Amino acid sequence: MPSRRLFLNVGVNSTGYHGNSWLAPDAAWDRFLSFDHYVEVARLAREGGFDAVFLSDHPALQRADTSRPLHSLDPIVLFTALAARVPDIGFVVTASSSYNSPYNLARRLSSMDHISGGRVIWNVVSSFNPDIAANFGSAPLPGREERYRRAEEFVSVVKQLWRSWDHDAVDTPAALGDPLWSGDSARPIDHHGEFFDVRGPLNVPLGPQGHPLIAQAGASDAGIDLAGRHADLVYAALLGKHAAREFGAQLRERAAAHDRDPETVRVLPGLVPIVADSTEEALRRHERLNGHADELSLVRAFADRHGLPFDPDGIVVPELFHSEENQQGPIGFTRSLHDLVSAEPLTLRQLARRVDGGHRLVLGTPAEVAEQILDWWRDDVVDGFTIQPPTLPHDLRTFVEQVVPLLRAEGAVTTDYPESTVRARFGLPDPVASAPTR
Amino acid sequence: MPSRRLFLNVGVNSTGYHGNSWLAPDAAWDRFLSFDHYVEVARLAREGGFDAVFLSDHPALQRADTSRPLHSLDPIVLFTALAARVPDIGFVVTASSSYNSPYNLARRLSSMDHISGGRVIWNVVSSFNPDIAANFGSAPLPGREERYRRAEEFVSVVKQLWRSWDHDAVDTPAALGDPLWSGDSARPIDHHGEFFDVRGPLNVPLGPQGHPLIAQAGASDAGIDLAGRHADLVYAALLGKHAAREFGAQLRERAAAHDRDPETVRVLPGLVPIVADSTEEALRRHERLNGHADELSLVRAFADRHGLPFDPDGIVVPELFHSEENQQGPIGFTRSLHDLVSAEPLTLRQLARRVDGGHRLVLGTPAEVAEQILDWWRDDVVDGFTIQPPTLPHDLRTFVEQVVPLLRAEGAVTTDYPESTVRARFGLPDPVASAPTR
Question: What InterPro entries does the database record attribute to this sequence (chains A, B) (predicted)?
């Protein structure tokens, strides 16, 4: 039995992870705008001992005709409000390094960190969609290479701003009546780079956990390099154990290359659970969720979506999936399918049950789902998972009530919160004492 | 007895309005960073029936050696957290039109408006300090004229984004399973202006009050024009009744020139109350707050600060105060002193008791303070006041416990909240039905 914990985050966007989740008959379709809905979801997550709730983001209206409303309320605002209502749990806040300014974002995240008592994790995204660019000026979306160069400088500036304060600046006001912060307890950063000029210091002192953690999800080379340099948590689409092990090794190597302790990077790939009383029922629920009456219909739609020939019992060859480092959209989803069928011979029928919405699908009874989670963790292939319940709150409640107790019984998770910050919970060191200042 | 209400907002920055408020012996000096402190203050304000709490802002570290720490936690974040904890009361959120992007700000304020149930008021500022500019790029702070041109375009874009939705877009999802928002319930705005290119639509539908109210404080010609065009609430430094009456008339005239109903603009100038059991005690508290042992010392410091000759019992002539439309800093404070001594002959000794920190000072017993508030309101010179308690929470508690009951007894205020949004509370019309779309 390993002494390390299994970390669990949970995605809480909108009506659930699945595109059809807004059609769930047991909840109001317009709950994507309801604060009470998110409070219920976050409380459920806390009851289940999750380490953090997670919101992805997209600052533009998404109108896929057949999909749920997605990415409406701003993550900084929604998670700040939740932090004021739900204790203990962490908050993974997605915010773009392409369409924010470093000073405002550093300040807002640090303010959240103070108010929440040290529970903020910033998920850095560079934004890949031209619809977003059109809301922020006349310039077209920059290419990936430029966006990641900007992201790297952005994160570096934000960290410098956070660290422009000493730990004890607020603890020791000298004598009352003395000048405030007249020494160098808060220092300008005088940053002048390719994209940003920022003088500083920040106007918010260090918080309860020093400063927020950093999360990252990009799977391109540039994304992995950014994660290796800066990320405490990494979210990824990893569909098989082999690929997960390789990804973790690559990430740790990159962290070491940037003079970081490779054991301080936590990998929590996405995982979509479909839990039912029997395996058969879980298969049927998977089909219904996707709007299909039977397995063959599901498999055919899967083939169509990925441009694969419809041969349910033929083995899918890796060559059918190819991604290019210079493509516009995210490359992680395509690469993960390629890696999965490279490592395991899978028929189309089998493959359609291993992935949903781009992430690892696990379906079955509570025991079957728990076992698939524990398997990767016992073998030290990942540090945990980012659970993506297909519909909210329904599938999160099922997971908390039926799967979490099995994970607890194995000593993998705890539903207590003995640590006072999310940094301590993830076992990560003081950022100001330990890390290089850029 | 007029049937209209007296509106009251209250400033809740940091440790209080007064520069020395962090030295108050009855509260921890570092409460400027404490969420619990702000919760206590907002709850007190709600108990007192205030219409809204107000945070000014300055996105740069302010290190005046002898002043309180000011403008640390971000207003959007702090007020979102408070909205999740304190019901009913409104939130005046200051955010800069020079150092935000319209899409992000429109979305964040709209998200707050949804989560708070329609309690958000955006206070538009153009930011006048070079320290701020240095945190947001290498360009120097633009001149006032350019900043206000940008502010006007910024507010116009934000309003277009808010109004890119129909009222009933979320009420009627057609039949479940039909395409979502496929008609023109959300429309691109396709804005292309001098400063901004924004396609839209916003990804947040209209909220409980349509969209947030708009507040404005600039006293320059450009500021008043911006207020006339867009502001629902106006904050100003108005030291005398004569100037207040003139200011209101000027503002309504400007609103009418922009095709607005002039009766829908509410003027709530700043007011600093110092309440004590006797007039003498209030005078002594005013001196102590400013770090002086007696009146002459206070008067001398006042003269020094404003560059006036020290002649305690000589009349101060208006020519001693002059402001220029093209000066860098805010011109409202200087102009308000000029207007006060033009309308009333005041000795230096008297003048030093009429203003503190730039705003109207009223000091005395609870009855004296209430009478000075009611006097302007009865004469219809203003719609209400933005109370600026010198120290928090102390002076707010005193005001709520001792002054508010007197205002209630006159029928000027209520401590109930019968209206469900801050727009309804201020008696303002549906913005989508009534207003031009730019």
Answer: Diverse_substr_monoxygenases (IPR051260), Luciferase-like_dom (IPR011251), Luciferase-like_sf (IPR036661), NTA_MOA (IPR016215)
